[in-house]
């Protein structure tokens, strides 16, 4: 019930106003509905999931998506019996709300879609010399161990979902992925990875250009330190916090193309959003350690 101040000489009937408020509040509560949604997990389906997978890849690569062979990468993700899963709400034939899979990078080094992606990753990590050198060795066609009969294998984790999907749906997907890789018929040849490379994205909160222009009219001089103090980073995928904690290397990078102004991505906030590429490299131990930690931090509803 709302409280109002009413003057003594007012002709408003307080009792009737309060009753009206109660009735209005009651009606508003009745109008509020709780929608229960069942999330079902499905195997990857090349006949149904191809276009949705392409959409997820474009979303994952952000402003640089046009640099990649999206169809070629989608084919690799959905090729027969690939480990991974999707989340759907209206049966197997419906569009997925989330996707998680893995691509064997070393097995596909000569494919144009993968070669282009690797060149992009190596270009982005140039500012981190050690990270870049490790990736160059791991993603080289040459043998990467002292034992020249063995080459270390790297799995590319592809994880994307609709923006409003809760993070709690993710731990079961990672757990199932690990189990599928272990139980696959060709597990030793294809899915016994030594390292996992996760491509993801974060965003930086930046001062709105509109606000800065308004402030500039009041004060032409602005200290850089004050501007930087308002900048913050946050995650699109909160499971990345755990993956980064267990990673050998990770980094955040600006996209090559800037197709949208930060203010155009501003929704219900005083800051603009500046998306960044995120790359996370884990060894097998770190990857497996992350899964139970995800389950603990993001338990089912």
From TrEMBL:
<dbReference type="GO" id="GO:0000055">
    <property type="term" value="P:ribosomal large subunit export from nucleus"/>
</dbReference>
<dbReference type="GO" id="GO:0005634">
    <property type="term" value="C:nucleus"/>
</dbReference>
<comment type="function">
    <text>Involved in nuclear export, actin cytoskeleton organization and vesicular transport.</text>
</comment>
<dbReference type="GO" id="GO:0044183">
    <property type="term" value="F:protein folding chaperone"/>
</dbReference>
<feature type="region of interest" description="Disordered">
    <location>
        <begin position="1"/>
        <end position="31"/>
    </location>
</feature>
<dbReference type="Pfam" id="PF13862">
    <property type="entry name" value="BCCIP"/>
</dbReference>
<dbReference type="GO" id="GO:0030674">
    <property type="term" value="F:protein-macromolecule adaptor activity"/>
</dbReference>
<comment type="similarity">
    <text>Belongs to the BCP1 family.</text>
</comment>
<feature type="compositionally biased region" description="Acidic residues">
    <location>
        <begin position="8"/>
        <end position="22"/>
    </location>
</feature>
<keyword id="KW-0653">Protein transport</keyword>
<dbReference type="InterPro" id="IPR025602">
    <property type="entry name" value="BCP1_family"/>
</dbReference>
<keyword id="KW-0539">Nucleus</keyword>
<protein>
    <recommendedName>
        <fullName>Protein BCP1</fullName>
    </recommendedName>
</protein>
<keyword id="KW-0813">Transport</keyword>
<dbReference type="GO" id="GO:0006611">
    <property type="term" value="P:protein export from nucleus"/>
</dbReference>
């Amino acid at each position: 019930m709302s409280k109002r101040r009413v003057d003594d000489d007012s002709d408003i009937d307080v009792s009737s106003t309060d009753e009206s408020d109660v009735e209005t509040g009651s009606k508003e509560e009745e109008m509020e509905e709780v929608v229960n949604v069942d999330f079902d997990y499905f195997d990857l389906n090349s006949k149904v999931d191809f276009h949705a997978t392409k959409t997820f890849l474009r979303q994952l690569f952000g402003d640089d998506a046009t640099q990649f062979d999206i169809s070629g990468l989608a084919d690799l993700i959905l090729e027969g019996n690939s480990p991974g899963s999707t989340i759907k709400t209206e049966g197997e034939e419906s569009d997925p709300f989330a996707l998680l899979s893995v691509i064997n990078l070393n097995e596909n080094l000569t494919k144009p879609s993968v070669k282009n992606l690797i060149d992009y990753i190596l270009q982005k990590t140039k500012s981190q010399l050690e990270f870049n050198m490790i990736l160059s060795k791991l993603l080289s066609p040459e043998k990467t161990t002292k034992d020249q009969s063995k080459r270390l294998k790297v799995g590319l984790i592809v994880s994307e979902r609709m923006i409003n999907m809760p993070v709690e749906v993710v731990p079961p997907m990672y757990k199932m992925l690990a189990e599928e890789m272990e139980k696959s018929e060709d597990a030793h040849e294809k899915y016994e990875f030594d390292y996992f490379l996760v491509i993801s994205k974060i965003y930086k909160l930046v001062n709105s250009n509109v606000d800065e222009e308004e402030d500039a009219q009041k004060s032409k001089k602005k200290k850089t330190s004050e501007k930087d103090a308002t900048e913050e980073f946050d995650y699109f995928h909160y499971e990345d916090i755990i993956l980064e904690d267990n990673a050998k290397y990770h980094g955040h990078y600006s996209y090559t193309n800037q197709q949208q102004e930060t203010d155009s991505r501003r929704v219900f906030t005083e800051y603009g959003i500046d998306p960044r590429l995120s790359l996370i490299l884990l060894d097998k131990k770190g990857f497996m350690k992350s899964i139970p930690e995800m389950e603990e931090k993001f338990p089912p509803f």
